[in-house]
Amino acid sequence: MTTTTGAQAAPKQNPLTLIMKIKSPQDAAALQAMLDKFMGMPRDKNPIDVALDKLAKVHFARFVFLDDNTKLAVITSYDDSFEDYINDFVNLIGDIFNALLAHMADAPPLPVQQNRQAFLEYVAKNDLRCVGTFYSAYPTLGVKTILAQAAEAE
Amino acid sequence: MLAASTTPAAPAAELNLADIQGIILRSYRMPCLRTLLLRVDDAVRSRDFLRILAGGDQPLLRIQNAQAWDSKPPSCLNIGLTFEGLKALGLPDATLRTFPPEFVAGAVARAAVVGDTGVNDPANWIAPFNTTQPHILVTLSAQSAEIRDSVTAEIRRAVSGAATELSCLDGVMPADHKAHFGYVDGISQPRVAGVPRQKPDGSGIPEFSDPMALVPPGAFVLGHESPHPGLFYQMPAPDALGGNGSFAALRILKQDCAAFERFLDDASRQTGIDRELVAAKLCGRWRSGAPLALSPDTPNPTGLRVDHWNEFNYADDPAGKRCPLGSHIRRNNPRSTAVAGDGGERHRIMRRGLPYGPPHDPANPDDGIERGLLGLFICGSLRDQFEFLMKEWVEGGDFAGLGTDKDPILGNQPSTGGRMRIPNTGKPRTIIRGLPTFITTRAGAYCFLPSLTALRYLAGLV
User: Fold this and answer.
1) What does the alpha-carbon distance between residue B324 and residue B326 come to, in Å, rounded to a whole number?
2) Domain for residue B312, yes or no?
């Protein structure tokens, strides 16, 4: 864990701006339908929410269609190193990405569970990151610690 | 990184116990442990030494495999090779490049990942580790010091002219099985699917029952599926070299017993908690070995057999009121705890080793004698197991909602002192402050533990 007393200290959190190129308008429609279905579920049934709750490394996540539905963006703020948690991440949410990536051009080999390094490389390659430094209002706090402190405050 | 192969070299199959080094899958439970650190001087002769180890013609120098034994042997010999060692033995560059990057980088380059900074920095390690990495580690477990010494003499004869002995490190099992901080150690080890349970062997160590699921063999044996579904940890090529192998982190960890005992007094005064309960909260077990999860109030629970002292998870203690989330054993083996990544049962390591140095004498606390643990931490992926555990669970706290708190026993604490939260039942939590660094890294090396087939492969290099 890094301390964050210095002005140079990097925040604990990192940005992910993953832009995936969709194969065709039909694939875009299928993705839209799938995401609509998930987002319409209660939190304890939505497989994305359930997986991210267990992962407890992602602060915020959202999907955005770009450029006339030719691209799908996954935009998140997450803790620490994606690489360190890649195995746990894939264990929890691999099937979601298998479903998403099936509709993407230039997708890595699937399923991601058996191609974890290729998946990691695909994410790194298609992550726009951010300009300059990543701002955080609470640069020392990870998801689990925030939740623990919130629970204690109640 | 965490490369996974899409086509595993060997399909999930029965373990070839005769080909796997015994130290990976078996606990030898012998009172003496010696590690000889060698530097290869003559590659050809050193490869001949590997041939002797793999060949089995000289019984004392036969590598112990992982098969069950009918009667316990007088000694067990095993071998590890560092990346520098594999190079010195003449492994071609193209083959060397098939090893995982963290192993290639080695323990010195990876020091910052695992908390080997400040006092733990490799520059402060003991010789030869402060200037160089050994090439070959020969680990010898023996039933007595006499057997250890006679086998050592055989090893020295065999390596004469091939390699130089850089160092000889000895560990000894204390009669009461208590490590230097006074805790009974070695209670919890992963149980691996496909490995027969060990029989009682007169060592005095109980067969502890364990409710955790069997660990897939690929957690420790290359070529088998890892605990992550679909993932086979990166295996060096060709199969004859990588298959049935494993990796290990050698660690020499100095323990400051006097500081530990003084801190128990300090923390007891700080908190009003009995000092032995403080010791139990730091570890998660009483020094008797009884776990707080099963015995929150006493180190000697009646009605709970010793061999059941590992029969627990944390499902009924999510907040850590009995066993704190930040305690040493709950960090290093979170079991059912809801940790970040949900991998509390997936990043296991196999612990081998024994204490070195004489037992701490409370009547002479500052005797100036170094003591600690000579440990070998075995795993199929140094990165996903040893390094993950050290970085996320020992040196970090956020995985369990503990902010920047570190392992109270093993953590490399900030100069201002570390902190540990102790949730209490029925009242606000207690916070212990001013934790010093009790354990200092004195040496580290990343080793490849080749199969018997791989030893023959290496011996045959031309």
Assistant:
1) 5
2) yes
Q: Does B158 fall in a domain?
A: yes
Inter-residue contact B249 to A130 (CB < 8 Å): no
| C-beta atoms of B230 and A114 within 8 A | yes
Nearest to B213 by CA among B316, B335, B307: B335
CA distance A112 to B109: 30
Cβ contact (<8 Å) for A113 and B228? yes
* In the block, residue with structure tokens 């060949």: B55
Q: What angle do CA B372, B373, B377 make, to 5 degrees?
A: 155
Phi, psi of B222 (to 5 degrees): -70, 140
Q: Give the rounded distance of the alpha carbon of B407 from its chain centre.
A: 16
In this prediction, residues B362-374 reach a mean pLDDT of: 94
Number of residues written out for chain A: 154
B389 chain-A contacts, CB cut-off 8 A: none
Looking at residue B215, what DSSP letter applies? B
Helix ranges restricted to H, B26-144: 43-55, 83-88, 93-96, 101-109
The ipTM (two decimal places) reads 0.93
Q: What residues make up the domain containing B316?
A: 256-347+389-443
Give CA–CA dist B142/B450, Å, rounded: 21
- d(C-alpha B219, C-alpha B346), whole Å: 8
Question: Phi, psi at residue B166, to the nearest 5°?
Answer: -85, -30
Q: Which residues of B touch A84 (CB under 8 A)?
A: 388, 391-392
| Partner residue facing A144 (CB), from B343, B399, B404 | B399
CA B322 to chain centre: 26
- The reply to whether B129 and B35 lie within a common domain is yes
Q: Residues B189, B311: one domain?
A: no
What pLDDT shows up at residue B378?
A: 98
- Is residue B32 within 8 Å of B144, Cβ to Cβ? yes
| B62 in the same domain as B166 | yes
Within-domain flag for B9: no
Q: What is the mean pLDDT of chain B?
A: 94
| Calpha distance B291→B311 (Å, rounded) | 9
Helical ranges in B26-168 per DSSP H: 43-55, 83-88, 93-96, 101-109, 145-159
Taking the CA atoms of chain A, what radius of gyration do you get in angstroms? 16
Mutate to test the interface with A, among B114, B226, B342, B390 (most CBs of A within 10 A): B342
**If you count residue pairs, one on A and one on B, with CB atoms under 8 Å apart, how many are there?**
106
Domains identified in chain B, total number: 2
Interface membership of B398 toward A (CB under 8 Å): yes
Residues B271 and B406 in one domain: yes
Rounded Cα distance, B272 and A66, in Å? 60
B5 domain-assigned: no
For residue A122, the chain B residues in CB contact (below 8 A) are: none
Same domain, B192 and B277: no
Q: Are residues B451 and B342 in the same domain?
A: no
Could you tell me how many helices (H) and strands (E) chain B has, helices first?
12, 10
User: A107-140, pLDDT tens digit by residue?
Assistant: 999 999 999 999 999 999 999 999 999 999 999 9
Cα(B263)–Cα(B279) distance, integer angstroms? 9
Nearest one of B170, B326, B182 to B258, comparing CA atoms: B182
| Neighboring chain A residues of B388 at a CB cutoff of 8 Å | 84
Same domain, B226 and B197: yes
Q: Rounded to two decimals, what is the model's pTM?
A: 0.95
Same domain, B281 and B298: yes
